[in-house]
Amino acid sequence: MIPKIAVIGEGVIGCTSALQIAKAIPNSRITILHDKPFEKSCSAGPAGLFRIDYEENTEYGRASFAWFSHLYRTTKGAETGVKLVSGHIQSDNLESLKQQQRAYGDIVYNFRFLDDRERLDMFPEPSKHCIHHTAYASEGNKYVPYLKNLLLEQKVEFKQQEVKSLDEEPKILKEWSALRPGRKHVRIEAQKRTTEGKGKEYTVVHHYGHGSNGFTLGWGTAIEATKLVQKALGLM
Question: What GO molecular function terms would the record report (predicted)?
């Protein structure tokens, strides 16, 4: 029996989830449902600069960083939208920068605090403290279409249609445009449901709440979401 799996949303999280599932369950039939063209979605705009806001998500970010590193080494950036960039974050609050260090200091490249000479020489209005690091950026208008091409190669189907009820596929609570709902802990959870009337059981795997860290955490969180899909199908 061929497992049938629906992924709702063709943004970075939807495409990343579908790709992980396709790799883990190669005999599955996957359909990605989206209610608008990709160009009008939230994922089409962000530059996707790697940054982890909460330490609880560090390991998800680590897995994503390894994926970006692989893409950077093996595929042209013009195709994937992945590139290396260096920059600084200034703050008068030392603890806020130490939190950044704890969240991803050992993941990115060249993470360090600037000394006083560098800080005073480089900035016209320097803050009391400043960090430097090098990390990957994944441009949404290139990176997500790249993922989509990988999915098409895996025979994943894309279908533009509004999903009014999960009973029809795998209930929309509300709609939004260009907003990025966030949680301190990304929601990755399997939930058993039953269709009204027919009483047919199905499983919903929730995978959302990345806020501004969707590109940073998406690959890592998709790995965890895929494990729940496999478990729901009795493959683990």
Answer: D-amino-acid oxidase activity; FAD binding
